[in-house]
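Subgroup meeting minutes
Present: P.N., E.W., G.H.
Scribe: E.W.

1. P.N. recapped why we're keeping a running log of single-chain structure predictions: easier to compare across weeks, and new members can see raw inputs and outputs side by side.
2. G.H. added today's entry (304 aa).
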Amino acid sequence: MNQPKFVSVLIVNFNAGNYAKACIKSLLNQSNIKLEIIVVDNASVDDSVNELKNTFGKKITLIKNKENLGFGRANNLAADKANGEFFLILNPDTEIKDQLGISKMVDFLTANNRLGMVGPKIHEPRKNKYVTPRLSYPSSKKLKFKQKFETLPGEIAWLLGACLLLKREVYQEISGFDPDYFLYGEDADIGLRIRQHGYEIGYCEDVVIHHVAGVSEFGADSLDKWLRKKRGVFLFCRKHYERSDLVRLAKTAITKSKLHLNWLSVAGLFFDKNDVVFLDKKYRLQATIIAAKEVIKQLESPSS
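Output recorded in log:
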C-alpha cells in the first residue's frame, strides 16, 4: 500500500488569529495525506500566538518572530524548518473544505513532471469572485523588450500566493521567495522564476479553496496599503524588465494617474469625498504616482 504523501503547510500569520484557527481546523480534517503545519507569526499585536497555542498545542509548529519579516522571508523561515516532500504555501484566511483537497493537488502536481507548482481555484466570497491563473505579468503586454517572456514554458504566468503547492526540491532550487519583497509582488516573482527554471505552472480547478482576502490589511491606512501593493508591482518590474521599458511604464503610470486624480477632483464636487470607494480610488492613484516616482529616482541614481 502506498504511503500518503508528506506535505508541509507553511502559514504566515499577522493579526489573523481567528481566521488562522479556522484554516488549521480545515487542514486537520484533510484525508489521504500526511501533514505538518508550521505557522510563522510575524509579530502580531493581537492575541494570535496565545490563541493558536491554546487551541492546537503540539499539533502545529509555531514560530514567533520579534518583527514583521514580510510574507516571503517568513515563508522561507518556515521552509527551513519543514520536513515534507511538498510545501503548501497557505494564507491564514483560507479554508480547504474539500477533505481530499490537498491530496488532489498533490496528485495533480505529481502526474506531470513538467509542473513545478500548482494552485487551486480560489473563491473570494467577500468580493463575490473566483481568482483564476494570470496569463501575463504586470504591464508585460506593454513591453517593447519581451523576448525572454515569449519562450517560457506553459501558458500560466503566475498564481495568487494565497495557496501554492510546490515540490520541496523546486522550492529549494529557486531559493524560495525573493526576500526583497515585503508584501505583494512576490507571487508573480516566484511564478516567473519557476518558469525560468524550466517548469510549468498548473491549475487544479477541481479543488476550490475559500479565501477571505486582505485580512492582514484590515484596518490599515488605505494609502499605506496601496503603497505596499504598488511598490511590490514596481519592484517586480524593476527586477525583470528592461530599464527603458520600466522608465516608460513608470512615466505613463504617473501621467495617467494624475489625469484620473483630476477627474476625481471634479467628481468630488458632486459626490461625497469621504465615501470609502471614492477615497480608495484616490489613494490608489496617489500610491501609483509615489511608487512610480520612486522607481524613476532609483534608476537615475549613480548606484543603480
